[in-house]
Amino acid sequence: MAGTSLPLRHELKFFINEMQYVVLSNVLDQVLERDPNGDEYNEYHIRSLYFDTIWNTALYDKIDGDQNRDKYRIRIYNLSDRIIKMECKTKVGSLISKRSVTIPRLLCEQLIAGDPSGLETTQSGLLNDVYREMTVNLLRPAVIVDYVREAYLHPAEEVRITFDKQLRTGLRRTDMFNPDVPTIPPFDNGEIILEVKFNRVLPPYIRDILSTYCPNAMQSAISKYTWCRRFEDLEA
Fold this sequence. Notes:
236 residues, alpha+beta
């Protein structure tokens, strides 16, 4: 598995409802820092194009509960090609790490088309892994995942708390730079995903805030990628 030598972080995920979100976000806005990437409402749009092998390895590893797995994606922000990131998110037991490298649009378009030739001479360890996966395991684009993110930060333990809203799936479309690509919500009730990331220990006062204002939120192994492929007719 790639990336296991990187620093590992905790990542807790919860489904919350609209009322819990409104109350908790208002509290966090008073005690934590806003994400500098956010707009005046502390929001920004994320579009990811997730890749998977010809055998849907990432999907089935998640469904089967495999504790050690990799997931590759290309990510853009606010539907702009100004910053394009190739990323690999690695799960090791209950911990996660992420590698990321900025790539040019031309290379991005090649990878979306399933052509890894632009990576043959790369010096990037991550892009070397992408090249291997595309040539050996036929890693290819699988699904577009869209959502709006609202994030709050605290320097202690590099705490990052995010609300991911308006999740939508692009089904089998891969034209991620198309602002008009049709998308549909995979959730039935417009659920909001609360994510809490930190290095070693979540500061007690932040833990108290979460337990006070979202006392009934149940931790869950939520995968946006898996949810966004729920409409596909895949064999179990």
